[in-house]
Every structure is written in structure tokens, then in C-alpha cells.
Design brief:
The strands form three sheets. A six-stranded mixed beta sheet has the order 10-9-11-12-13-14, sandwiched between helices. By secondary structure, it is α/β, with parallel strands linked by helices. Helix content is about 25%, strand content about 30%. The protein contains eight helices and 14 strands.
Length: about 280
């Protein structure tokens, strides 16, 4: 039997330990599809953890270039913010775009499905990002390494759903002084980032100059491109970045940090924003 509560499903399972079996309850992170529609056009389908759907949709449309300004998103009706006389369907978000962002039939035909784990695979490229006119993040921001080392623990301490399920990714936005501004969880790492950026867009805080984006998984290409779209100068992850993520970060001047654990991290790009001493050359490195 599976019982559903917000973002979590409770199910009966068999646990085996030391040659003993017993029936226990387990907590699962909810995963459901969400379709985004503007009128008769489907803008995309993603697998996500329900909750903060309005932010997810806003962030997705912005980071994927469907809208370029907050004013182009006139409304989002989703299950977590129904409007009018009838509630939105649970797995459907209806958006209203301004005439500037209206999709032509040819553009709308470019429909894409996004898995919770992989984002919009195969679509993104550095060349496409250049054509969209994405600018380099601010060059004046400076960040203290000691502050950076404190962020993973702040992230873990605030991951309420992860603490129950162990199965969610998280993304969090921090101020220059290390204050957590927003944290969002989702079964998909890209969705968690879109929720954070969607929050910033709806709160009128873009571009995110002087901010740090921390993600709980690896720093892949799409996370870097989403951060660049939002104007984030520093992206940190507790795991490794991909080669394409490093290439993009170096080309567009983003500070990219990986393996942020304890008192250690690796700087892959944009070292000038971190107040670290000049690195010593290690023979044979």
C-alpha cells in the first residue's frame, strides 16, 4: 500500500538485516510528470517532485529562453496556486505569455520532454547559448573560501524532504555573506535549479549578481547554463562537474567550484572571484 503526502509517498516494504526480515514503512520521493501549456501549444513536459510548480515553470521558461523578461510571463496556473472557478489539473500548468513571447507555430512545434535526471538532453549547446545573448556574470563579486565551506552543511540541515526519503536533489541560493535566501528540492537536479531561479524571477531579483548557487549533486552543463542565464557568478557543487560544464564556465566567465566538502574544494573556472592565495605549483601535478 502507498499513501501520498505532499512531495512524499509512504509505502510498506520488507527490510532485510543480519538474516532477519521485517515489514516496515519507507518514504519515497514523489515523481510525477508536469506538462506546461500556453493555449493550444505544449511548451514541455518534465518529471518532477510536486510542489513549487509555479516557480518550476517560471524558471524553466526563463532558462530555456522561451521568455527573456519577467513581464513576458503574465500568469501561471498550477495545482499549487489554482485561479478562477476551477483548480488546475494536478500535473498540468497553464501559462499566459505576453505577445512578445508568444510562440509561432514553427517554434511551438519544437516540443521537448525533460526527464527528472537529465534535463533537456541533447538540445543545449554553447553555440545556442551564445545566440541567445547570455552575458557574462558580474566580475566585481568576491567570495570568502571559509564562507563557501560552510554552505554544504547549511544545505543539508535545511533539506526537510531529503531527510525523510534520501532521494531528492537540492539547490540553494546564498548571499555573499553565506545567508541562505532560498532552497528548493526535487527528484531532478535541474528542476531544483529551475525552482530557485523561478523564485528569483517571480520575486524580481534577477539578475542574481553577488549570489552563490549550491547544488547537491554534480555540476553538469545544464546547471551551468541555467545559472549563467540568471546572472549567477558562482556555482558550487558537492560533486564533480562535467567537461562541457567546465568549458562553458571558462568561456563565459563563471566561477565553478566542485567537490565542496569539509575544508576542501576544487576551482575549475573563475578563480579571481575567490579570495584564495596564489596556488603553488606541485611537481608532477
Amino acid at each position: 500500500m502507498i499513501r501520498c503526502i505532499p512531495s512524499i509517498e509512504v509505502t510498506d516494504v520488507t527490510e532485510w538485516e543480519n538474516n532477519q526480515a521485517r515489514r516496515v514503512q519507507d518514504y519515497l520521493a514523489t515523481e510525477e510528470p508536469l506538462e506546461m501549456r500556453a493555449g493550444r501549444y505544449s511548451l514541455g513536459v518534465t518529471l518532477r517532485t510536486p510542489g513549487d510548480d509555479r516557480e518550476l515553470v517560471a524558471g524553466f521558461l526563463f532558462t530555456e529562453g522561451i521568455i527573456s523578461q519577467p513581464e513576458q510571463l503574465l500568469s501561471v496556473e498550477a495545482a499549487d496556486n489554482p485561479t478562477g472557478n476551477s483548480a488546475a489539473q494536478t500535473n498540468l500548468a497553464r501559462v499566459t505569455l505576453s505577445h512578445v513571447a508568444h510562440l509561432s507555430p514553427g517554434k511551438a512545434a519544437r516540443r521537448f520532454s525533460a526527464g527528472s535526471a537529465c534535463g533537456v538532453c541533447g538540445k543545449a549547446s554553447i553555440a545556442q547559448l551564445r545566440r541567445r545573448g547570455v552575458r557574462r556574470p558580474d566580475s566585481a563579486s568576491r567570495f570568502d573560501p571559509d564562507m563557501l565551506c560552510q554552505l554544504p552543511e547549511k544545505l543539508r540541515a535545511t533539506q526537510a524532504i531529503f531527510g525523510r526519503t534520501g532521494g531528492l536533489h537540492a539547490a540553494a541560493l546564498f548571499s555573499r555573506d553565506g545567508e541562505m535566501l532560498v532552497l528548493r528540492e526535487d527528484i531532478g537536479r535541474h528542476n531544483a535549479v529551475d525552482k530557485v531561479i523561478g523564485w528569483a524571477l517571480l520575486e524580481g531579483q534577477l539578475p542574481l549578481s553577488g549570489r552563490t548557487l549550491l547544488v547537491s549533486g554534480r555540476g553538469g552543463f545544464e546547471i551551468v547554463q541555467k545559472a549563467l542565464t540568471a546572472g549567477v557568478p558562482l556555482v558550487a557543487s558537492v560533486s564533480a562537474p562535467s567537461s562541457l560544464a567546465v568549458k562553458l564556465a571558462r568561456e563565459l566567465g563563471l566561477t565553478l567550484v566542485g567537490f565542496l566538502r569539509g575544508r576542501r574544494f576544487i576551482i575549475y573556472s573563475g578563480e579571481e572571484r575567490l579570495l584564495v592565495p596564489s596556488p603553488a605549483l606541485v611537481e608532477g601535478a
